[in-house]
Amino acid sequence: MASITKTKKGVSKGEIVKPAAQAAKPAAKVSAPKAETKPVAKAPKATAKKAAPTYQEIALRAYYIAEDRCRQGRSGCPESDWLQAESAVSAEYSR
């Protein structure tokens, strides 16, 4: 018995007819149940002021205070320069 296949032009004798490949259906996607979302509170708008002065800012101010004090010939100690710088920089941040 002769097999028949389909070709572009038609069917020819002696060739095996192969069934057309069925298009593979993609598997249905199973999504995980969605968790309830709660509204997120908006962050407060950024302001120009920082929360607290940094160590470097206080150290730099203390250096300038000590330099000015020495130039004027006044006596003092680094601890008092630091405390004065800390209060001055903190006052600037609180404005």
Task: Tell me what you see in this structure.
The protein is mainly alpha-helical. The chain has a domain at 55-94. Helix content is 36%, strand content 6%. It is built from two helices and two strands; from the N terminus they run ββαα. It has helices at 55-71, 78-94; strands at 4-6, 11-13. A two-stranded antiparallel ribbon has the order 1-2. A hairpin with a 4-residue loop joins β1 (4-6) and β2 (11-13). α1 (55-71) packs across α2 (78-94). The model has no long low-confidence stretch (mean pLDDT 76).
**Content-based structural category:** mainly alpha
The sequence of SSEs as H and E is: EEHH
**Which parts are unreliable, with pLDDT below 50 for 5 consecutive residues or more?**
none
- Helical fraction equals 25-40%
Shape: elongated
Quaternary structure of the protein: single chain
Overall pLDDT metric: 76
If strands are numbered along the chain, what order do they take across the biggest sheet?
A: 1-2
- How is the biggest beta sheet arranged? 2 strands, antiparallel
What's the β-strand tally?
2
First CA to last CA: what distance? 101 Å
Please compute the radius of gyration using only Cα atoms: 41 Å
Output the number of helix runs. 2
Beta-strand proportion = 5-15%
